[in-house]
Structures are given as structure tokens and as C-alpha cells.
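The following record pairs a protein chain with its ligand, heme C.
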Amino acid sequence: MTRLTTGQSFNTISAVGFLAVVMIAGGCNPAPGIARGEMLFDTCSPCHGDDGAGDQELAAPAIAGASDWYMTYQIEKFQNGVRGYHYTDAEGLRMRPMSRALFADRGDIESVVEYVFSLPIPDPPATVEADAAAGEVEYEALCANCHGVDGRGVDSPVPELRAPSVLHLNDWYIASSLRKYRDGVRGAAPGDGAGAVMRGPMAGMSDERIDNVTAYIMSMQRLPRRVPGPPPEPLPELIVDASILPAGVTVEMAREGQEIFHGEGICVTCHLRGGEGGPLAPSLTDATWLNVDGEYESIVDIVMTGVAQPLEHPGQMLARAGTSITDDQVRAVAAYVYTLSR
Ligand code: HEC
Ligand code: HEC
Ligand code: HEC
């Protein structure tokens, strides 16, 4: 992989971007919408390319082909410093000031996203040479649950649970992003629930395995795209016998916990629906416990602290699953988990 990021080209590009922003701010200002987006895209194309298909020399990935919600979400993260926060993240630090040129109150983000979304979907060539067959095994065990067996991503009403499509991406960018998640250079800012979701499966993954899974993604059928899988079915009503609950725990808490487990607590991404368990995390529905004794307080404690070194599963469980759920929400989700095996 080459990554030419000379100071000179970066400065020139910043200047081009800056000039275009000044021109936009200074007049001829279309209303929010695709025409405004096309004009704003003049500030993006020096790096991302006229067709939005990316530029390896500048390490700017393809953005045409991404879902609109995903682009909006990432631009907001760059603006808030939740992405591009790490001093070694040269690429993220390059993108971050560009995001600041977009103003929400002028409809800039929705406009440029609408324009990029209208561009033809690119199909970048494979450049990373690795063992795609070994990568397929990894993908099916560790990635398909969230990104879909076909890689087109999965929709969800909960932002943290929406996994983006990986089908339009350049392989050098996939491989670089996966290393960043692994190393905490991306996805580890406080409160970045989606980043935490993605960091789970990456913990401890070797460069070789990363390249293999990247090669497999490039070998996937790359069309049709941009059509995320449907959101999951509504949750079944939770029936709980109140007499089994420990003191201080109520049926209402368990019901609230069910929502958190399948929503902002992001537990479902590893423990799967109803806590049935999967390749990334154990079942919570049986009487077998690995790290706790199964009593209510032990479940509260482990959700608070996470599991840094799982006994039988890859990756790790972060404290509060890496989300910002409150103490009360932890107690509610633990109440739900407590009921599952009883
Ligand atoms: C100075 C070069 C540069 C400019 C100009 C630029 N970007 Fe970026 N952008 C990057 C780089 C580099 C990355 C990759 C960051 C990383 O690797 O984490 C990126 C990443 C992104 C991403 C995230 C892609 C993903 O798959 O997660 C989006 C969305 C994006 N840029 C949109 C834009 C938009 C919209 C504009 C114009 C307003 C723009 N960029 C202008 C360099 C640039
Ligand atoms: C538990 C759910 C989950 C699993 C498992 C998962 N991902 Fe992700 N993935 C996500 C989410 C959510 C994001 C968005 C994170 C963010 O906003 O930074 C993401 C982001 C990504 C990105 C960045 C996309 C971009 O445009 O920048 C890549 C690449 C990726 N995942 C590949 C993988 C691969 C390969 C695996 C398996 C080794 C995997 N993911 C496993 C949920 C998951
Ligand atoms: C990134 C994946 C991931 C997420 C997200 C996650 N967990 Fe876990 N969880 C694990 C792993 C891995 C273990 C430890 C398994 C092992 O030791 O092999 C674990 C263990 C547990 C245990 C102890 C089980 C035992 O048998 O020792 C409980 C309880 C638990 N998780 C509940 C939750 C709850 C509640 C949430 C949401 C707030 C959550 N988990 C989110 C991966 C995850």
C-alpha cells in the first residue's frame, strides 16, 4: 500500500477547499438541496475525486456509494471531534477541518450528502493481496451478523446499531480503518457507541487477518448496493414472574432493560436477539456462566466493568459496552439479563 501524503499536496488542497468555501459564503447561494450540494462538493472533490470514488494518494476514500445516513453521521462525528481525534490519525485529521466548512443551519450537510448520494456507485479495484478464502471464514463469523452476509449493511432505528455498507469502499481504506478501530485510533472517543460496536470484533486481530477479511470483502458481489437490510422485527412482549426477581428489581425495570439490550445498550450486536449468544459473545439464556455467578449484582458489575479478556470469545466487552448508558440503565438491562435464564 502506498500512502503519499506530502505536506505540499495537502496545503494546496486545503487552499482550494478554503477558497471554495469563501466563494460559497460570499454569494450565489442556492437553497438547501442538490444544487447547493453540487456547489459544496467542489470543496470535497480535490480529495475524494470528481466522481466521489476516492484518491489513494490522499488516502481519501470513496464516498459515492455510501448511505446518506452514514455520511451524515460521519460528518457530524468529524465536526464534533468524535472522529479524527487521535494524533496518529493523519487521514482523520485531514478530513476534520473540511467537515467544519459545512454549516448545519444552512443545510450544508444534507445538501452535500444528497449530491454525493446521487453519484454513480464506484467499484474500486482490489489492491490488497491476501487470502480471501481465509477472510470469508472470518467475515462469516465476525462481520456478517452486523454488515449482512452480502455486505450491504443493516438498517436500525438506533444510530449505534446501524452498520454501513462495505461494498463501495477501497480496500486500502478498509484495511486502514480496521487497524484504526483495533488500535483505538478510530471509534474509541467517549460516547461513540457505533465506534465501540465496531471495535469489539477488532480487538486483537492481526494485520494478516485484517488483510484476509479485506480481500474477501473485495471478492463479494458488489451490486446491488445501498439498500440496507430491513430493520429487525418488533420485540416480543416480555413476560416475567415477579416472584423470581431479587429485592429492588421490578418487572418494569426488566422491560426497560429489554429495550436497552436491543437498542442503545448495543448488547444485541454481540449477544444477539433475546441474548441467545453467537460467535462474539455467550448465550445469556442458559444456566452456564463464564465470568459471573449469575446473581443480579454480579450481572450489574460485569456490565459496568466489561470483560477485557474473554475466556471463550474473540474481541472484548467494553465497560457499559462502550456506550453512555447510565447506572439506572445498567441496572435495568441487568434485570432483563437476570430473567433470561430463569
Ligand atoms: C483535504 C482532503 C479532504 C477533503 C477536501 C475532504 N475530505 Fe472527506 N475525507 C478525507 C480523508 C483523508 C478521509 C478518510 C479519513 C479516515 O481514513 O478515517 C475522509 C473521510 C470522509 C468521510 C467518511 C467516509 C467513510 O466511509 O467513513 C466522509 C463522509 C467524507 N470524508 C466526506 C467529505 C465531504 C462531504 C467533503 C467536502 C465537504 C470532504 N469529505 C472533503 C479527506 C478529505
Ligand atoms: C457488532 C456489529 C458489527 C460487527 C460484528 C462488525 N461491524 Fe463493522 N461496523 C459496525 C458499525 C456500527 C460501524 C460504524 C462505526 C462508526 O461509526 O465508526 C462499522 C464500521 C465498519 C467499517 C468502516 C466503514 C467506513 O465506511 O468507514 C468497516 C470497513 C467495517 N465496519 C468492517 C467490518 C468487518 C470487516 C467486520 C468483521 C471483522 C466488522 N465490520 C464487524 C458494526 C459492526
Ligand atoms: C462487543 C461485543 C459485546 C457487547 C456489545 C456486549 N457484550 Fe456482553 N460479553 C461479551 C463477551 C466477549 C463476554 C465474555 C465472554 C467470555 O468470557 O468468553 C461477555 C460477557 C457478558 C456477560 C457475562 C456472561 C458470562 O457467562 O460470564 C454478561 C452478563 C453480559 N456480557 C451482558 C452484556 C450486556 C447487558 C451488554 C449490553 C449492555 C453486553 N453484554 C454487550 C461481548 C459483548
